[in-house]
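Let us practice reading a record.
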Amino acid sequence: MNPLVARFLRLSASALVLCGGLATAQDLRDPPDQTFTVWPNIPVVRASDLGDYGQDRKIFADLHTAKADPAKTLEALQAVDQLQAHHERMALAQLGRTVNTQFIGEVDKQSRRINGARPRLRFEFSGISPDELQRAAALDAAARQALQDKARNVALAAYISYTRLQETLVQATVTLVRLGTGASQSFTVTAPVQELGEALARAVVDYFSGTRFSAHQNPLGAAQWLLSAPGHADQLVSRDMAQRYCQSQQAALPTVEEMEAAEAAGFYGGGVTLRPHTPYHVQTGLYDPADDAGKVHPNYIASVRNGYYYCIRNPLPAAQAQRPKNQKR
């Protein structure tokens, strides 16, 4: 295998690793009103081939960092083209060329439909011929500098990895990489092979052109939720036992409003998750998240006297928090 092909396979494999780190530090959509030029030669690689080079993923991090210079950008584009040509020659059921062409065409079509004359992504060689790119090392200093200046206009490179599933289904991941920083974003779809390019394009266009939702704020602010006592885990307990444990943690049983706000926020939004058809202790009784008739019942029901519970610890009011300990009320 050509050394550049092997090199880019190693580089590409690490993009998924960087996605969890660098991608969070830089949103690929910024600035929001910019059109990004994407290198149009997109390698389409079987996932099994990609995994063969996992041991050398650090090379990708070395190449695509904030310290990357124009010469390294040229090297990256050379590797992309070598890899794309290599897998095109392999012609694995011609999936690579089909998906590459379909993906670019679908991104262009969907972008024009949404944004008219101002698409977010534009696939072009930026005045660089693939032949000129591969001969970059043999160019004189002036010609090489001119090539580097053109390469600066290319913002993103991409590759697609795929795995064949049953019958015609294919699972594919397209990864976009910001040249020069290493920031990356991946999009995974599962679709019939004939619809794969369209499905990948829809995911990418939605990301770049869709509404950018703001992050949710915790509806209960600085309040802290506590699990039930370790000895009460997954147990229905009495109201007195729940109250005593919450008090021992400088906390209390939540109000109905606090419980509903926390349930709406969800476990990953600063709130809690509640079991359906299960009573929870709140300050005014038993709260049943599946009961639409008021949701709160007196604590002592003939059939159910006990419940699960969370504790909530609210911050002290500023005046109370600042009161000297020896000051009498």
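A brief commentary: The two ends are 81 Å apart (CA to CA).
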